[in-house]
């Protein structure tokens, strides 16, 4: 099967990196890194923390923009221009089409993220040299922060592929992905607040707490992949946490891709 | 030709507008107490994965806000300190590990705003999270000792600080000093000398140096009062008696523009209360 979808993955990847959005995203990460070199000088003491926060946050924003604008629009182009009919008339099934698209975008995401990561690390290294006394966070933690942000991108990509296979408009799929992004990043904090004593005293309904628990279970918990505060403050992350978080991401992605394949098989392109 | 005129006009108007924009920014009132401000837990929920950077920008923005007040009118008013307290509290909720939040809580709220209770409230959040940082319990201890006169709590936090990695012997000796009466000005001098060593900001350093100068002068006068008491068995009625009895040659000037005096309890004080005296 891999032999059959390999050329398709390659075409999707090449299409992704030739896309102007990808180039724009790289320029954006370059601009934010130059801004980082300037902004860190405004920090009073914790220069390293501000620099790492800025680098990782712009990396996250880069990934989000790429997923929404490059991957999101390109998936529908095949359907709108009917090129999907040509692809599917070849020896490739609908399931393989979804799988090929996902891995093609995964490679695009990896390529652009790698460039953004290299620009970010170079900037952080320059800041560390110039502010040695105020940059104490280890680079191992920073790498982990980047890795986990990338895993969150892949999760979000699988969410986008899932909604694309279900809906008939690119706007709806992008909108739903954005909603999942916001909920996924805040659901942990929202649940923590809802189950706190302050919320109980304020009269938060137990039904609301149950709804939050269900949402937390269904929506991907993207907050678990946000290690920016750990990386920026040089805090340790346990091996168990890394292992379970990565396993969670793999299982979640697999479920979504399988559901996408199933939904795409039943879809009509008239 | 028309195009050239158009571009000349645009290039000419742009700097004029920019300068006017800058002017209007500077004349904007500094007080922001009317601004809608989301409490920490809500900000935490809405900021998603950008909690850390939001905390950074809030604290950097606060630093420039306070700097603007100092340049404009030398001191902030209560409402402005209250606004700064809320900003710092929210920043500590967003990222409780961020050191600069506590640095400003101590230097702005405790020292300049005379709100040690509020500074302590924020510092305790940091001390709980930054377990390897001795400075935060040290600052809490200092605020209890110097501002709130609560020696029991001060000694507790000094001891807590001295047990953390990197704490100097000085911290341990401060916990001992705090257990006994007296030594307040000496404590403040030791503390400020440590703060001066730590800061690279020239503006802050110069502010600390002025305060250190004032405290050293108070300490000098306190020692002279002690000498007088030993010699005559009573507290002098005013500082001029120290000159007439040849204990000191002159009363030093308060760098804040106030006048040193002896209060009813026999303590050396200044009319400036360690703040710049506004000229009427």
Overview of the molecule:
The complex is a heterodimer of chains A (about 270) and B (about 280). Chain A is mainly α and about 270 residues long. Chain A has helices at about 1-20, 20-40, 45-80, 85-90, 95-130, 140-165, 170-195, 195-200, 205-220, 230, 240-265. Chain A has eleven helices and no strands. Chain B is an all-alpha fold and about 280 residues long. Chain B has twelve helices and two strands. Chain B has helices spanning about 1-25, 40-45, 50-75, 80-95, 100-110, 115-130, 135-145, 150-160, 170-180, 185-200, 200-230, 240-245; strands spanning about 260, 270. Chain B has a two-stranded antiparallel sheet with strand order 1-2. In chain B, a hairpin with a 5-residue loop joins strand 1 and strand 2 (about 270). Chain B is flat. The chains are: A mainly alpha (about 270), B mainly alpha (about 280). The interface of A and B includes residues 45 and 235 of A.
The ordered H/E elements of chain B are: HHHHHHHHHHHHEE
Portion of residues within helices of chain B: 55-70%
Number of structurally distinct domains of chain A: 1
The tally of structural domains of chain B comes to: 3
Distance between the termini of chain A: 27 Å
Mean pLDDT of chain B: 83
- The helical percent of chain A reads over 70%
Structural class of chain B: mainly alpha
| Total count of strands of chain B | 2
If you compute it from the alpha carbons, what radius of gyration of chain B comes out, rounded to the nearest whole angstrom? 24 Å
Short précis:
The complex is a heterodimer of chains A (270) and B (280). Chain A has 270 residues and is mainly α. Chain A has helices spanning 2-18, 20-39, 47-80, 83-89, 94-130, 139-166, 170-194, 197-201, 206-218, 228-232, 239-265.
Q: What is the topological layout?
A:
The complex is a heterodimer of chains A (270) and B (280).
Chain A: H1 2-18, H2 20-39, H3 47-80, H4 83-89, H5 94-130, H6 139-166, H7 170-194, H8 197-201, H9 206-218, H10 228-232, H11 239-265
Helix pairs in contact in A: 1-5, 2-3, 2-5, 3-5, 3-6, 3-7, 5-6, 5-11, 6-7, 6-11, 7-9
Chain B: H1 2-26, H2 40-46, H3 51-73, H4 78-94, H5 99-112, H6 116-129, H7 135-147, H8 151-162, H9 169-179, H10 184-198, H11 202-232, H12 240-244, E1 260-262, E2 268-270
Antiparallel strand pairs in B: 1-2
Helix pairs in contact in B: 2-4, 3-4, 4-5, 4-6, 5-6, 6-7, 7-8, 8-9, 10-11
């Amino acid at each position: 099967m891999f032999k059959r979808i390999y050329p398709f993955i390659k075409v999707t990847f090449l299409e992704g990196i030739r896309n102007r959005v990808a180039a724009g995203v790289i320029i954006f990460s370059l601009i934010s890194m130059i801004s980082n070199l300037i902004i860190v000088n405004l920090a009073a003491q914790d220069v390293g923390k501000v620099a790492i926060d800025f680098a990782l946050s712009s990396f996250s924003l880069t990934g989000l923009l790429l997923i929404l604008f490059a991957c999101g629009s390109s998936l529908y182009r095949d359907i709108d221009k009917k090129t999907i009919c040509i692809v599917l008339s070849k020896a490739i099934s609908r399931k393989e089409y979804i799988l090929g698209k996902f891995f093609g975008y995964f490679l695009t995401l990896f390529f652009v993220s790698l460039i953004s990561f290299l620009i970010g690390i170079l900037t952080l290294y320059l800041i560390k040299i110039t502010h040695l006394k105020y940059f104490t966070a280890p680079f191992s933690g920073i790498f982990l922060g980047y890795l986990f942000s990338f895993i969150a991108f892949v999760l979000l990509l699988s969410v986008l592929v899932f909604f694309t296979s279900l809906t008939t408009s690119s706007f709806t799929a992008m909108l739903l992905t954005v909603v999942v992004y916001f909920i996924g990043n805040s659901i942990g904090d929202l649940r923590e607040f809802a189950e706190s004593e302050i919320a109980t005293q304020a009269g938060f309904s137990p039904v609301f707490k149950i709804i939050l628990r269900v949402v937390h279970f269904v929506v991907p918990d993207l907050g678990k992949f946000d290690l920016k505060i750990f990386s920026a403050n040089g805090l340790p992350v346990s091996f168990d946490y890394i292992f379970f978080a990565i396993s969670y991401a793999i299982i979640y992605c697999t479920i979504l891709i399988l559901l996408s394949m199933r939904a795409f098989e039943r879809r009509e392109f008239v | 030709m028309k195009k050239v005129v158009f571009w000349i006009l645009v290039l000419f108007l742009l700097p004029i507008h920019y300068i006017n924009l800058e002017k209007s920014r500077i004349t904007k009132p500094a007080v922001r107490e009317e601004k809608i401000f989301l409490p920490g837990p809500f900000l935490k929920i809405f900021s998603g994965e950008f909690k850390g950077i939001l905390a950074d920008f809030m604290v950097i923005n606060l630093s420039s806000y306070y700097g603007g007040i100092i340049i404009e009118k030398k001191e902030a008013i209560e409402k402005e300190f209250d606004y700064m307290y809320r900003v710092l509290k929210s920043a500590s909720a967003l990222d409780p590990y961020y050191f600069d939040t506590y640095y400003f809580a101590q230097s702005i709220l405790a020292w300049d705003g005379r709100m040690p209770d509020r500074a302590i409230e924020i510092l305790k959040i940091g001390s709980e999270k930054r377990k390897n940082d001795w400075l935060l319990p040290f600052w809490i201890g200092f605020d209890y000792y110097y501002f709130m006169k609560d020696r029991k709590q001060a000694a507790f936090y000094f001891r807590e600080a001295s047990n953390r990695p990197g704490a100097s012997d000085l911290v341990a000796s401060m916990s001992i000093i705090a257990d006994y009466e007296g030594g307040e000005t000496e404590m403040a001098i030791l503390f400020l000398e440590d703060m001066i060593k730590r800061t690279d900001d020239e503006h802050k350093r110069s502010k600390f140096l002025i305060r250190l100068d004032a405290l050293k002068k108070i300490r000098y006068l306190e020692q002279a009062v002690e000498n007088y008491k030993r010699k005559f068995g009573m507290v002098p009625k005013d500082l001029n008696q120290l000159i007439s009895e040849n204990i000191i040659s002159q009363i030093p000037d308060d760098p804040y523009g106030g006048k040193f005096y002896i209060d009813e309890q026999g303590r050396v004080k200044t009319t400036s209360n360690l703040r710049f005296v506004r000229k009427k």
